[in-house]
Amino acid sequence: MASYTATRKLYTLIVPVDSQRVLLGYKKRGFGEGKYNGFGGKVEPGETIAEGAIRELEEEACIKAKNLPYHGILFLESTADSKAPILEIHVFTATEWAGEPMETEEMRPVWFAPPSTTHDSSDSPAIPFQNMWEESREWLPLVLAFYFPTPRRGKIQFAHHVTFKGGLNPETGLEDIWHGIDRKFVKWLESGRKDDEGFPGDLEDWTEEVREQWIEKRMMAFEKNKM
Ligand SMILES: CNc1ncnc2c1ncn2[C@@H]1O[C@H](COP(=O)(O)OP(=O)(O)OP(=O)(O)O)[C@@H](O)[C@H]1O
What we know:
By secondary structure, the chain is of the alpha+beta class. The protein has one domain: Nucleoside Triphosphate Pyrophosphohydrolase, CATH 3.90.79. The chain has helices at 49-61, 136-144, 208-226; strands at residues 8-16, 22-27, 36-37, 64-65, 70-78, 86-94, 97-98, 107-112, 157-164, 167-168, 175-176, 181-189. A five-stranded mixed β-sheet has the order 1-6-5-9-12. The chain has a three-stranded antiparallel β-sheet with strand order 3-2-8, with no helix packed on it. Strand 2 (22-27) and strand 3 form a beta hairpin. The structure holds N6-Methyladenosine 5'-triphosphate. N6-Methyladenosine 5'-triphosphate binds at residues 11, 13, 30-32, 37, 40-42, 76, 87, 89, 133, 135-136, 178. It comes from Morchella conica CCBAS932. Monomer. One of its GO terms (cellular component) is cytoplasm. Belongs to the Nudix hydrolase family.
């Protein structure tokens, strides 16, 4: 079996929520500068994905997550640059933490009203999807629908495999390889149980081996579609 050799970057992303609001960060520098997003970054050698997620949230927003519901994976490719890495981003929410969100050198935390809120019933502004990564429009509302208007039991998880062809970045007016959705595969699981395509419902089931196999399967599915 051909194995997929492009560089892969392992990232985390946490979206903190309280009973009425969603915390996003305005990225002040580096990758994604000028956009709102959850908090996260690269997983460092020697740490687990969950450890990386907690560390990045603390570094970027000064809060320490006390829980970390797992929601799944964003698996992002861009055909606009053959040398672009593949982004493997593991997504969490947090509903409990220690400390108060504070601005850091990298991020400015801002509270937003979830999409289900009517304008008049919230003091917070609506989530600025136009200033976020393009594919956030797809997965973030569905994750938030699990909490708002009323929290549901159980788990909601997804696998989201998107290929970008490059497109105009609305913040800069320049071409960006991570814009312009070309193809997408979206899978939702409400139970958090492993499914027949091998998508594991829980973070601890994403062993190195399972990740390799699942990703290889995804890559092959997209390759097949091309023909
Ligand atoms: C293309 N579509 C995307 N959609 C949603 N989220 C995206 C994303 N692309 C990157 N992300 C997130 O953006 C952060 C980058 O983090 P980034 O600052 O580069 O990492 P880290 O803090 O380790 O970097 P340095 O240490 O400064 O190199 C990290 O949370 C990662 O999950």
